[in-house]
Amino acid sequence: MLDSDVFHSFRRNPVVVVSAVVTTVFVLAALLAPWITPYHPYDLASLDLNDAFTPPAWTEDGSRRFLLGTDDQGRDVLSTIVFGARVSLLVGFCAVLFAMTVGITLGLVSGYVGGAVESVIMRVADVQLTFPGILIALLIDGLARTALPRDLHSEIALYVVIFAIGIANWPQFARTVRGSTLVEKSKEYVQAARVIGLHPGLIMLRHVLPNVMGPVLVIATLSLGFAILAEATLSFLGVGVPPTRPSLGTLIRVGNDFLFSGEWWMTIFPGAALIVLVLAVNLLGDWLRDALNPKLR
Amino acid sequence: MAEAPILEVKNLRVEFPTRRGTLVAVDDISFSIAPGEVLGVVGESGAGKSMTGAAVIGLIEPPGRIAGGSISLAGRRIDDLPYEEMRKVRGREIGAIFQDPLTSLNPLYTIGRQITETILTHLPVSQAEAQQRAIGLLREVGIPAAEKRIDHYPHQFSGGMRQRVVIALALAANPKLIIADEPTTALDVSIQAQIIALIKKLCREHGAAVMLVTHDMGVIAETADRVAVMYAGRIAEIGPVRDVIKAARHPYTDGLMASIPKVGRTDARLAQIDGAMPRLNAIPRGCAFNPRCTKAFDRCRAERPEPMRVGNSDVACWLYDAGQGGTR
Amino acid sequence: MIAFVVQRLLQSVLVMLAVAFISFALFRYIGDPVLIMLGQDFTREQYEMLVRDLGLDQPFYVQFAKFVVSAVQGEFGISYRLARPVAQLIAERLPATLELSMMAALLALTIGVPMGVYTGLRRDSWLSRFFLTISLVGVSLPTFLIGILLILVFAVQLGVLPSFGRGDVVKLGSWSTGFLTTSGLKALVLPAVTLCLFQLTLIMRLVRSEMLEVLRTDYIKFARARGLQNRAVNFGHALKNTLVPVITITGLQIGGIIAFAIVTETVFQWPGMGLLFIQSVNNADVPVMAAYLLLVGFFFVVINLVVDLLYYVVDPRLRIDRGAASGH
Fold it and tell me: What is the pLDDT of residues B17-40, one digit of tens each?
């Protein structure tokens, strides 16, 4: 592994190394949030309204206690960013995982079973792909909002968002996996397995999945970037995660209201964090796609 | 050769820098082609024959590059020309035919447009005259109803027809040399003979020499006047076709000839040469063929053989060094 | 040709019906429109009367048919939130969204395509690398953040451009346009730039990668081998082949602008359909949501249809009625 072409290409590309490091830092920070942040911004008891609207530490009115300033409730912006990143990453990963599961399953099924099942699934995927993902996510989210009574919705809003973004992403996985499944299905070992009496489906899983993992990984990484952006957008629009668990998008929205009165740090820092995270993930995905592309080797 | 050669290649070396070191695709080869002559260049995949053709026409893809030697066309050096100068040589003085006629033609333009474009780029004629010439070319290559089909798109032709169009395109500006890289490999066997015959006939009529690159000895036997056998980026043997085929001197050529199944013989097993051609990053010291050669001796493993004159051919094999093992 | 058009039209109608079905299901079965309309106090009798009035006791397909028929006539029901006919609301907001979208699409195309071509042709120039880096950042920046940043710089700090609203508009018949006033144009700048950026980067990257693919093909190699000038090769052959698939994908992307307008309109409080939609989602205003879905679906289906037809016109390979090849 250390000697492989992929790793070699990785080491020689400083930008990608930095991206990987950045992503890892974000993930670790998000996982360890409650232990590493200087304050717990959502523990109402620890907040002091007198601290509100403190600018970043390096400005005139700033304070060493709050590196990036505080928001309108006196919360430390740095801490809110770390917790916000936690939610953003959580939603992002879960949405991608969900999309992967649905997409891979449907791809395998449609490739293996073929016939009407395949046509229907692929048709749906194609039609869905003509609509932008954000719109799909928005629609599903909106539907849930109208269909469920208010309080139930607030409780499960997080899952609704994950579900919505996941649904927006499954077609790409499904199409790739179906393609590979078709290729494998026509290979002779599948026929041989049938003759022996082994369940070809299991054989295919053992052989198709490894072959497909490369492109799936690429799509997954790029989808992660999209998912994080989608969640941020939904939250910014007010139809994303519930306000009790703000993500980076929510933070930006809240901070936006104070942009004109001069408290720029409440929006800019969460915004910067979001940009850096998505950029890092996208760079990784881009590099991964080129590194795993057999045509370019 | 009575006249001056139309193409003279001396000590040509083509390299590919990679991150694992420099690969040598063509290693110090020399040959020449007389005007109107058909030189076959034969060898296995990876032997360097296509690369040689690409070098002559100046289309080696970076990071590959010509690292040494010279290429001269009608006495004028062309390997060191600036891009614009070389562009004028391409098409006008050197034409090319590639392997796959399906992908050689732009699917979005009519074949007429592609031919007239080539003519107009190189020859000072009017649009109308270019059109006439194009129709004439199509007739020459044997496309029926040329005036109609000139407005057709490539996908409306069959594989063999397309290759004829490609030949017409190669000859459009009347070049003196044609490089044909595996021109029949992608075609049905039944059509291969027709196309080869067409190439030979037209080149003779237009007075163009041909460098015919292929791995198919049968095609060479039918068409070429002389043949160069390449191995691992080097020329093993080069000489008149009859000599090389009937009385191969280099052990590799001998092995090649022997491995071709012949009608009428009833051999128990097909003859083969043990081993495989070395990869470009693992070429043996001395003669590249020595690990597989049944006649190898110490010198073969130590020094790379120079081409030596044996009869009408040049053979790069120590067996023929007057001082050493003696001739066959 | 006719057959193709008819087939595509039929397909489009089918998809539209599917979208209408989803929209109808939304409208009819999510929440209880009768309850919402009646409010808190009502008798059982009033409830049943309203049900009959609205035709909600009819069988499913009858209701669906009525829905489709009224939709086609532009009748979408009444907004829960604003108690006004949805059709009227949409008519008011549509010009704003369309003008914004068209401006953004124009910007994205006129900047994105040339940038893509340039970075495809001159891969290693510093300008190319610069564009590529910008494009990567562009894909990672959420639209709303771009909007906020632009507002921060141009409206808050520099104070040269407005940060919300549409400026003064002029009514031409039933269409209100912002193009004819200075304040209208000024108000258009930031939102249009924000909206176009994402599409721009996508288009640029698409054109570039397609261009790079095309430049690797055999027919480009053959074109160079024929000595065609760089301009002819790059623009005549490569660009044309690049643009064919790009046209289709770009068309679909442009459709995405309508959707992304939602975000931009929210950031800039632009009084368009997108803002209306978000407000309706927040307030469970189902008729508006359903109408928006129908409308957007319609746009997409039309765009898809146009793109398919365009593809047919541009790519000769699709016109198979001309007949296949003949002879060899």
Answer: 887 788 888 988 999 999 989 999
Distance from C-alpha of B293 to C-alpha of B149, rounded to nearest angstrom = 53
User: In this structure, are residues C301 and C308 in contact, taking their beta carbons and an 8 Å threshold?
Assistant: no
Q: Residue A188 belongs to what H/E stretch?
A: helix A188-196
Tokens encoding A121: 């699934």
Helix (H, G, I), strand (E, B) or coil at B71: strand
Top pLDDT among B324 and B78 is at: B78
Q: What is the DSSP string of B77-133?
A: E-TT--HHHHHHHHHHTEEEE-S-HHHHS-TTS-HHHHHHHHHHHHS---HHHHHHH
| Whether C15 contacts C271, CB under 8 Å | no
CATH 1.10.3720.10 location in chain C: 87-327
Q: Which of C278, B69, B188 is nearest to A145 (CA)?
A: C278
How many Cβ atoms from other residues are within 10 Å of residue B156's Cβ?
21
Q: How many CB atoms lie within 10 A of CB B257?
A: 17
For chain C, helix (H) and strand (E) counts, in that order, are 13, 2
Subunits close to A (at least 3 CB pairs below 8 A): C
- What is the model's pLDDT at position B323? 58
Helices (H), A114-187: 115-129, 133-147, 150-185
Give chain C's end-to-end CA distance (angstroms, integer): 28
The two tokens of residue B256 are: 């090649």
Task: Indicate which of A18, A138, A146 best probes the interface with C, i.e. most C CBs within 10 Å of its own CB.
Answer: A146
What is the pLDDT at residue C20?
Answer: 80
**C20 class by beta-carbon count within 10 Å (0-12 exposed, 13-18 middle, 19+ buried):** buried
A53: DSSP letter: T
User: Which helix (H) or strand (E) covers residue C277, if one does?
Assistant: helix C273-282
- Any chains having at least 3 CB pairs less than 8 A from chain C are A, B
The pair of structure tokens assigned to B285 is: 């010291």
C contact set with B (CB within 8 A):
217-219, 221-230, 232, 236-237, 240-241, 244, 314-317, 322-328
CA distance C179 to C92: 16
Cross-chain Cβ contact C324/B156 below 8 Å = yes
Q: pLDDT tens for residues A67-117?
A: 777 777 778 888 888 888 888 998 999 999 999 999 988 888 888 777 888
CA atoms within 13 A on the CB side of A222: 17
B182: left (phi over 0), alpha (psi -120 to 50) or beta: left
Architecture of domain C87-327: Orthogonal Bundle (1.10)
Contact across the interface for C152 and A264, Cβ inside 8 Å:
yes
Supply the ipTM of this predicted assembly.
0.84
Structure tokens at A69: 């300033």
- CA-to-CA distance for A5 and A8, rounded, in angstroms? 5
Give dist(CA B305, CA B283) in Å, integer.
14
pLDDT the model gives residue A9: 67
Whether the CA torsion B221, B227, B232, B236 is positive or negative: it is: positive
Q: Which residues are CB-contacts of A121 (< 8 A; sequence separation ≥ 6)?
A: A106, A109, A110, A174, A178
Q: Cα–Cα–Cα angle for B46, B48, B52, nearest 5°? A: 150
CA–CA gap between residue B317 and residue C211 (Å, rounded): 48
Q: Exposed/middle/buried for B9, CB within 10 Å: 0-12, 13-18, 19+?
A: buried
- Residues ≥6 apart with Cβ < 8 Å to B268: none
pTM above 0.95, yes or no: no
Q: What is the DSSP string of A32-50?
A: THHHHSSS-TT-GGG--GG
- How many Å apart are CA C220 and CA C226, to the nearest integer? 10
CA A104 to chain centre: 17
Cβ-contact A85, A248 below 8 angstroms: yes
